Amino acid sequence: MTILSIELSHRPASIAISIEEKIAASLVWESEDPGKELFTAINAIVKMAKIDKKKISLFVPSLGPGSWTGIRLGMGAAIGMAEANMEKLYPVGSLDGIGYALRHNGKRAIIFSATEQKFHSAIFSSDRDALHTEPFATLNEEDTRIRLQGCKIVACADSSVEQTFLNSQRITLTIPPQAALNALLALRRKSLGIPPTLSPFYEK
To answer: For 189, what's the count of Cα atoms within 13 Å in the CB-facing half-sphere?
Structure first.
């Protein structure tokens, strides 16, 4: 299976192509105008991977949470390239891709900054498919700290979150959302027969 993954919900922007469970090509860049840059980047990565664009069998846009503009652009591009064939569309959440990357580390939490001095968080325990084992939540700082108790790994997506929780020594590492991680997660979930989520999480 050949997958094109698009992650525009946060900076840096990224796209990736995976072929049979391996990342064939990946691009990461500090986007100034993703609307103008995306298709140029897609054409470049297709050449890097040495594939025919028509051979792409699955499109994996990011659901966020994050940039309203970025998520809409990614979803719109994926739907357009899939020619509105929803069978070829498998969106995943930005936190989920990071959660899957850390799947061998036991109970883990992924934190993103939200609006109004709040934080998004997702907690995972399964080593298999990176499904949330506790509901996705958007909470204030104090309640987020409570939620992190018992987590072996705590990852954040940006430096603002890292600084907020630094004194509590809860942040283990910083990993931004990545198209390559989303592609591998989508392939894993699809192989397990897990249906995709189609509702984007727009924020700002």
So the answer is: 26
| pTM of the shown model | 0.90
Tokens 């192989």: give the residue: 191
3 Cβ contact list (under 8 Å, min separation 6):
16, 17, 18, 19, 56, 57, 58, 59, 60, 183, 186, 187
pLDDT tens-digit series, residues 93-105? 988 899 888 887 7
Residue 110's closest CA among 132, 128, 92, 126? 132
Q: What is the CATH number of the domain that holds 113?
A: 3.30.420.200
Residue 5: exposure state from Cβ atoms within 10 A (0-12, 13-18, ≥19):
buried
Q: How confident is the model at residue 203 (pLDDT cuts 50, 70, 90)?
A: low
The 10s digit of each residue's pLDDT in 113-138 is 888 889 999 898 866 666 667 778 99
State the number of CA atoms in the 13 A half-sphere of 154 facing the CB. 21
Asked if residues 28 and 12 have their Cβ atoms less than 8 Å apart, the reply is yes
Looking at the fold, whether 45 and 103 belong to one and the same domain comes out as no
Those residues whose C-beta lies under 8 Å from the C-beta of residue 8, and which sit 6 or more positions away, are 31, 34, 38, 62, 67, 69, 70, 71, 73, 74
In whole angstroms, give the CA distance from residue 7 to residue 74: 7
Verify that 31 and 128 share a domain, yes or no: no
More confident residue, 5 or 111: 5
